Amino acid sequence: MTLMRRQSLVKFLLEPSEVEMGQITVNYKNRGRIFVNGEKRYADQCVDLLDRWILCSCVGGAILEEIFNGSKELDFNIVPSGFITGLEPETRLKSPDDGYALGYKSDVVTGTGVGTRATITLTDTLSVSEAACSSILHVPCDAVVYMRTEFGLMHELVHANRALRGKMRTVSQGDHMKNSEEAIAILITNMLMSEKGAAALRKNYDTAERLDPPDPVLFKNQPGNEALINQVATDHPTLKAKTNTDTAPVPFNPIYAVFHGKP
Ligand SMILES: [Zn+2]
Fold it and tell me: Is-above-0.85 flag for pTM?
């Protein structure tokens, strides 16, 4: 759930030729450069999750298509638990300035919009660690549906997509949905969750509250959210194209609630 800030970005990124003994690298679908690295069992599980849960869905498929079309390199590492901090899953940027949109500037990054290589780190079981749920939400992982493995992976794929394509703007992690990278990852993952029939959607980043009711029109009408949805639509044209229709299989569909099928 974590988007690493610049201070913690110093991490050796494994090149495919430098993968440790006993580990394999899968070039996922041989499209773009999505590499799944890890022991065979983990890599197989990860590919299976991408295939059977994300690529085949409307929302997840759109995010992966954007990665395929926009990727120079995206390493997707599966790292044994204990190796890193206990805030998995997380996304790290190779070149932070390049992950941010041209014109975006903060005290730590100056966006170039070029896009950067990114690495998603998952635990050895692919699941979200209890340390992460405790740290971010102060509840056990099984108390919130969006901490399930497949939704955690989707959330990080949104971060990686935006870093790779040079679309990132903020790393604000306030407790309200606002125009930040976490809010965008939560919004898009909520769309996938509704497509999958999840019992509850995520309200914000750092509480265990559910979005109640999960109504896209009510959501759109809350202050600031229409601008957030417009940003998502602008930054993610494939996602917009697939979901801006009343036939999209996505009950929580803020994009359609804003655009009603119009460009
Ligand atoms: Zn996140």
Answer: yes
